[in-house]
Amino acid sequence: MTNVDAVHDGEVVAPVSGEMSLVGHLTELRDRIVRSILAVALGTGIGFFFWKDIRNVLIAPLPTGTVQVLGPGDAFAIALRISLITGVIVAMPVILFQLWRFIAPGLTEQERKVVRPWIPLGLTFFVMGVGLAYFILPFAVGFLLTFSDNILVANLAAGPYFDFVTTMFLAFGLIMEFPIVLFGLSRVGIVSSALLVRSRRVIILGLAVFAAAVTPGGDIISPAALFLTMYGLFEGTIVFIRRSGK
Fold it and tell me: Mind listing the pLDDT tens digit for each residue in 39-59?
């Protein structure tokens, strides 16, 4: 096994003819995870600096513009939760880049050329998911609050509300990565465009159930918007996989 790494388009890639030991793989994985964690920590620090501004944006859909805390530590816990979710969102480019650098040595040059453009697309899909969650948030909250009245008074507790909002943002962002998963599976021969077309009805049903299961709050708007977006990406992924020869 040679000690000299091959260089492709500015990227250091392990030689195809050699094999990295298990310890080497684990060390590489550890280094990538540590760098990702450091990026999330930095993003969390940025989020903590702006957490009140972010909080105000997230509370804006509420008619009262306020939520109540029920315990002395609730406000601090909410500040940390908002900061952490912001940190994950801010660090996503670094996380995706570290993921790419970890898997790239195991791919052929042709596979790297095919997969490489999907890394920025993964970031685009994640941002689309977060943007979609932000767009439908007022409608989802408005729908849920229509069931409150002078008996069921909507004096929302801060903890459950921000749990709902931050979970929704992170879930939408991560779920939007599924086209990349499908494309990756097609490259290794597990799925094909023909198989996806034959399984379309089952997949549509699965997407509907999945969208309803992962969206918090129990409203109709959130799962409907997520399902339509996922279905559109699913059909687009079929076209892309077919054009790639799979």
Answer: 999 999 999 999 999 888 888
